């Protein structure tokens, strides 16, 4: 009976576009795990009720996406260290005693994609992180753990970047500034964590920021290269990368948290690109 199969879902609003069911069903097939994974349209201000209803109907765990990651952070009974510092939860795990644990696999997904799939060396590198919203906050600590020489967070609203840099760490490795303050600086990797791509825009940053051989990473993805990827190519980037790998890697880590098995990601990535 279908109801005997463990149920998972991704909750967000909008949600119809989500590729997570495709990815998790591919993981399930690959690992032989029996599970169903669906899309759940969350309702503004009713997130807690939506989650409770899903779990009452037999749900075992949830992925959480825009705009509910902070609601999830507030809802759960306990948090992993990385979710705590991200102030956002993208994975809810129902513990055996019924309590809810919140984790955040976004940052790990990004770092794995950069290091293992793209073979970029983060240790001792200079990283520019564009944006100071939830997407940046979510990846900052895992990026720091990869031991870069420097992370500069730059944001259209400079004060938010400065606040994020000082809020999350006292390390001198991290600094915050406005987009205008970047002129003359050089980076090995520029990561776009802004929402500018939603309107096919690129943050207004100076030319010449990218070191020779440097790369550009857009946390967004689409069927075609994003505006930021096109910008990177124009700046002579050695590699321009979209966020599909991050999506698959964060999903793999969520799958591992729920099922105790880490799926292989390369073939799933290939399928998604196909
Ligand atoms: P998310 O949770 O996805 O990070 P958010 O908290 O709304 O979403 O943050 C969006 C980020 O994209 C912010 O850093 C925002 O800059 P501001 O803080 O100055 O608003 C940034 N952003 C959005 N549109 C942008 C644009 N056209 N150019 C540059 N930055 C942009």
Describe this structure in words.
Helix 1 crosses helix 9, helix 5 crosses helix 6 (134-145) and helix 5 packs across helix 9. This protein has 274 residues and is of the alpha/beta class. The protein is built from ten helices and twelve strands. It has two domains: 6-104 and 246-273, 3-Layer(aba) Sandwich (Rossmann fold); 107-242, NAD(P)-binding Rossmann-like Domain (Rossmann fold, 3-Layer(aba) Sandwich). The structure holds 2'-monophosphoadenosine-5'-diphosphate. Residues 131-135, 155-157, 160, 194-196, 201, 203 line the site of 2'-monophosphoadenosine-5'-diphosphate (ATR). 2'-monophosphoadenosine-5'-diphosphate binds at residues 131-135, 155-157, 160, 194-196, 201, 203.
Summarize this entry quickly.
The chain is of the alpha/beta class.
Topology of this protein?
Elements: E1 6-12, H1 20-31, E2 35-41, H2 47-56, E3 59-64, H3 69-75, E4 78-79, H4 81-86, E5 91-94, E6 100-103, H5 106-117, E7 126-130, H6 134-145, E8 150-155, H7 158-168, E9 174-178, E10 187-192, E11 210-218, H8 227-234, E12 239-241, H9 244-259, H10 266-273
Parallel strand pairs: 1-2, 1-3, 4-6, 7-8, 7-10, 8-9, 10-11, 11-12
Antiparallel strand pairs: 3-5, 5-6
Helix pairs in contact: 1-9, 5-6, 5-9
């Amino acid at each position: 009976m279908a109801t005997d199969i463990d149920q998972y879902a991704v909750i967000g609003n909008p949600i119809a576009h989500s590729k997570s069911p495709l990815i998790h069903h591919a993981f399930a097939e690959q690992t032989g795990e029996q599970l169903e994974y669906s899309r759940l349209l969350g309702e503004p201000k009713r997130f807690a009720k939506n989650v409770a209803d899903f779990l009452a109907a037999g749900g075992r765990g949830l992925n959480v996406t825009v705009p509910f990651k902070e609601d999830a952070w507030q809802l759960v009974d306990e948090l992993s260290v990385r979710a705590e510092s991200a102030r956002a939860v993208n994975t809810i795990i129902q513990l055996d005693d019924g309590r809810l644990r919140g984790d955040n696999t976004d940052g790990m997904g990004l770092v794995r994609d950069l290091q293992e799939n793209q073979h970029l060396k983060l240790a001792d590198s200079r990283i520019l992180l564009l944006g100071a919203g939830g997407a940046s906050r979510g990846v900052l600590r895992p990026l720091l753990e990869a031991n870069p020489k420097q992370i500069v967070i730059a944001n259209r609203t400079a004060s938010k970047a400065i606040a994020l840099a000082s809020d999350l760490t006292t390390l001198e490795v991290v600094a915050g500034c406005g987009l205008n303050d970047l002129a003359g600086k050089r980076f090995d990797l520029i990561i776009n964590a802004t929402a500018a791509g939603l309107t096919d825009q690129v943050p207004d940053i100076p030319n010449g920021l990218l070191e020779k051989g440097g790369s550009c990473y857009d946390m967004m993805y689409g069927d075609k290269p994003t505006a930021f990827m096109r910008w990177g190519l124009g700046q002579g980037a050695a590699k321009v990368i979209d966020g599909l790998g991050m999506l698959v890697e964060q999903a793999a880590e969520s799958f591992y948290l729920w099922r105790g098995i880490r799926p292989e990601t390369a073939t799933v990535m290939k399928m998604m690109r196909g």
